[in-house]
Design a protein that fits this description.
Jelly Rolls, 9 helices, 282 residues, 4-stranded antiparallel sheet, single chain, 3 domains, Arc Repressor Mutant, subunit A, alpha+beta, 5-stranded antiparallel sheet
């Protein structure tokens, strides 16, 4: 028999799948903060269309952004917030039912972050579900529309499970596109000091786990990855500008000119001056 919580949309259903509530929110009007010490009795997802949000992980507040969702299992502590300045657009849903077992491999006492691979399709289905959910409130085709809502919900759950379980970090908070995001960040900030903890936080994993996943994806360490980016950028400056070798080195993040020359020669077999000279020779 279904268990109902009085004065709440929370609903633990024995049905195959059951959508309890859902909606779309534009959170640019004020700061929003939700805290539920003992969680809800159903599943809960918060998906970011644009902007970003923050959730509690091991006592710290971590960020999750566009194209990713926050998944809470029943009775899991919930603590998350959205800031007015981020002007966030969020889709949310609460649900239960037997087919939620698709999410069982992801189960955690903490929030689980799942990056969605096909965000366009995911958002399309999510918004259709929301539209039908509110349409069914005052309609004589309630049963048919409810079935349609549950079909959309099953598609969303299946997409979440697929995206989560096809990632390298099965069993962890899913990193998904996390390492790709870090690679993009490192390419954009190649001349800044490396911050491994920051990169690990971007992937929602521990420092050691991040280092393992990074090497698994690239074949090298973050330090060497950054070094190779700097060398490539330095090559471009040497052949496309009149900057001195030391200036090129400083521009890409090397503060010591002799160290830059030594590292450049190690990876190119030429000094910066020789590289510039030979480039124009050919």
């Amino acid at each position: 028999m279904d268990k109902l919580v009085k004065y709440s949309s929370e609903h633990e259903s024995a049905e195959y799948i059951c959508l309890n509530s859902c909606g779309e929110q534009f959170l640019g009007d004020r700061d929003h903060h939700e805290y539920h010490k003992n969680g809800r009795i159903d599943f809960s997802i918060k998906y970011i269309v644009k902007g970003k949000g923050y959730f509690e992980k091991n006592g710290d507040m971590c960020e999750f952004g566009e194209g990713s969702l926050l998944l809470y299992f029943p009775k899991s502590r919930q603590n998350y917030r959205f800031e007015k300045t981020d002007d966030t657009q969020m889709l949310w849903a609460h649900f239960s039912g037997k087919r939620c077992d698709l999410l069982k491999p992801l189960k955690s006492k903490n929030a689980v972050v799942v990056p969605i691979s096909d965000t366009t399709e995911f958002e399309r289905i999510f918004k259709k579900m929301i539209l039908q959910h509110y349409f069914k409130i005052n309609t004589h085709v309630r049963e048919a529309v409810t079935a349609l809502c549950h079909g959309y919900l099953l598609a969303l759950i299946s997409m979440i499970a697929k995206d989560a379980l096809t990632q390298p970090a099965k069993g962890d908070m899913v990193i998904g596109r996390g390492v790709d995001s870090v690679l993009g960040y490192m390419n954009a900030h190649f001349n800044e000091p490396i911050d491994i903890q920051q990169y690990a936080d971007m992937c929602f994993v521990s420092r050691d786990r991040f280092l393992h996943l990074f090497k698994e994806k690239t074949g090298i360490s973050p330090y060497k990855f950054q070094l190779l980016i700097r060398i490539e950028r330095a090559k471009g400056l040497l052949v496309n500008t009149s900057m001195s070798a030391s200036e090129c080195g400083e521009a890409v993040g090397f503060r010591d000119a002799s160290y830059f020359c030594r590292i450049f020669k190690k990876y190119t077999a030429e000094t910066p001056a020789a590289y510039r000279k030979n480039y124009y020779r050919f």
